[in-house]
Design goal:
Number of domains: 4
CATH class of the largest domain: Alpha Beta
Number of helices: 19
Radius of gyration: 24 Å
CATH architecture of the largest domain: Roll
Strand content: 15-25%
CATH superfamily of the largest domain: Dipeptide-binding Protein, Domain 3
Helix content: 25-40%
């Protein structure tokens, strides 16, 4: 027996059947090392342990997980969008608000740019064999800014608040059908169990930074967040002025690394171009950009671009319950008229990945890469139009939200579908008019015959599979109702092992190519621009900005 085999045998002891099944997949070559580490972190295996298993299985030394140190004395200056509503972790949904609450608040675990889950307020977690109960062990000695220690009662109250259907939680789209109010249970002061509605193999992502509302608040939180900005995070509020900005100072009682920058300053801007001008003018050190808005920065040697692959997408929905899109052949014809290579290379300046008309993005370890990529095929699109009885074409209105490159994307679609006889009239609306009340019957988004909607990044596809596409989905603008699809999604969500997820994902991808209720043309890279000399800046594709390790050459 080789030394490595003996080490691997020792590491396998006391591991659950689920964990050993994943290790088998790595040893047998069915699971890549990268996917092994990502899925192992989801099951609650520590990153050092995953590294030792990988080494013992013959994959060489594990990559270093060390990060840069912060810089005491530094003031890190950020340009961000104006929060569109009151700052409250329970209800916040816009990028400006998400970035601000994350400076003071923390999550049970953090979903990194590599989709690895890292411990934060929870030190470890594990599922039962079925994935119906997940047990989290909490970190001891963590203090809220207001003084009390963070314990199980605070976690129970925080998650119950988000899962309460009678409340106004923005996280109901995550917890609906997954976790009910009252199903988060205290075992002891440092142990919490989540008793789920059904098996869920990806659950830890639902209580990670991937669910940006899942910040842990004191149990007695009453909803007056802007008065306190209470949390456990590395920075404490210094000053907040609505519509103007916010500043934060280092938290001397922080449980984590003490090498923090002294201050962070956030200045609010009404539009992205103003943020970019502030960066170019030296007023700020960091801002988010898009490929289109930030084109002048992409190759400018004075700035660095942090680029993260993501599942963020601009979904083109077509109403499956009304003409002209009742026939899936018409929906497929439109999808086949789109030149995705030009979308990525031209519209997105190469800062995107090809989409294949499914929310299961290339970044996910469960994506079945053997499913053929849909390409532009005008001849086949015309044949489908003829077969559907609309060979002479038709007129339709495309309603879209005026965000990022969506107006330009709409114009490209308008031009491409002309080749198959479709005449599109564009109706581009501001976000307030487009989303309306965000309920059926009171929303241009959910009631439009055809529309384009911006969707943010998720570290696992659960929400993107359910909310816009399941028969009872809260965001089902396509009015797509398909029992086979619903069953497949339930099966995918229930799968606790990676190979089970991948097998079901392939069937979902094929079904959606056939039905095409939504066109997923591309998945955008999440771009952050910084001045030269900045290190340790860690954005997330969910719009957070982790600055506890940030440093800059000149303070």
């Amino acid at each position: 027996m080789s030394k490595n085999y003996r080490i691997l045998d020792l590491l396998r002891r006391n591991r659950s059947p689920l964990e050993n099944h994943l290790i088998d997949g790595l040893v047998d070559g069915r699971v890549s090392r990268r996917d092994f580490v990502r899925h192992g972190s989801l099951l609650g295996l520590s990153l050092p342990l995953l590294g030792r298993i990988g080494t013992a299985a013959g994959f060489g030394a594990a990559p270093s997980l060390a990060r840069a140190q912060g810089a005491p004395g530094a003031t890190i200056r950020v340009a961000c969008s104006v929060p569109t509503a009151a700052i409250d972790p329970v209800t916040i949904a816009d990028t400006g608000g998400i970035m601000i609450i994350q400076q003071v608040g923390e999550f049970l675990c953090v979903d990194g740019p590599d989709l690895l889950l890292r411990p934060a307020l929870a030190e470890s977690w594990k599922p039962n064999d079925k994935g119906t109960v997940w047990t989290f062990k909490l970190r001891k000695g963590v203090k809220f800014h207001s003084g009390g220690e963070m314990k199980a009662d605070d976690v129970v109250a925080s998650i119950d608040r988000l899962a309460d259907p009678a409340g106004s939680s923005n996280a109901l789209s995550v917890f609906k059908g997954v976790l009910q109010k009252g199903a988060t249970r205290k075992v002891d002061d440092y142990t919490v169990e989540f008793h789920l509605d059904a098996p869920n193999g990806n659950f830890p992502y639902m209580v990670s930074s991937d669910n940006y509302n899942a910040i842990i608040l004191p149990a007695n939180y009453k909803g007056d967040y802007e008065k306190s900005f209470d949390g456990t995070g590395s920075f404490k509020l210094e000053k907040y002025t609505p519509k103007v900005g916010a500043s934060f100072v280092r938290n001397e009682d922080y449980w984590g690394d003490k090498a923090l920058p002294d201050r962070t300053e956030f200045t609010f801007f009404d539009n992205r171009q103003a943020q970019i001008l502030a960066l170019q003018g030296g007023q700020v050190d960091i801002t988010n950009i898009t490929a289109l808005s930030g084109i002048g920065l992409l190759n400018d040697p004075n700035f660095d671009i942090i680029s993260l692959k993501s599942s963020a997408c601009q979904q083109v929905h077509m109403r499956c319950d009304s003409d002209p899109f009742k026939d899936p052949r018409v929906r497929r014809a439109i999808a086949l008229s789109i030149d995705r290579d030009k979308l990525v290379a031209g519209l997105m300046k190469g800062r995107a990945s090809l989409g294949n008309d499914s929310p299961i993005a290339p970044i996910y370890p469960s994506t079945d890469t053997s499913v053929p990529q849909r390409k532009q095929d005008i001849a086949q699109a015309k044949q489908l139009m003829e077969a559907a009885g609309v060979g002479k074409g038709f007129k339709v209105t495309l309603t879209a939200v005026r965000v990022a490159e969506i107006p330009e994307y709409a114009q490209l679609i308008q031009n491409w579908v002309k080749e198959i006889g479709i005449e599109i009239e564009l109706n581009i609306l501001d976000a307030g008019s487009y989303y309306g009340d965000a309920v059926f019957g009171k929303s241009n988004w959910l009631d439009s015959v055809m529309g384009i909607t911006d969707y943010g990044h998720r570290g696992v596809p659960n929400v993107l599979l359910s909310a816009p596409l399941k028969s009872d989905g809260t965001w089902n603008a396509a009015h797509f109702k398909n029992k086979d699809y619903d069953m497949l999604v339930s099966s995918y969500i229930a799968a606790v092992d990676l190979e089970g997820q991948k097998a079901t994902a392939g069937n979902i991808q094929k079904l959606l190519l056939e039905e095409t209720p939504i066109i997923f043309g591309y998945f955008l890279d999440y771009l952050t621009a910084t001045t030269k000399g900045m290190t340790g800046v860690q954005p997330s594709a969910a719009a957070q900005l982790f600055l506890e390790k940030a440093s800059k050459a000149h303070t």
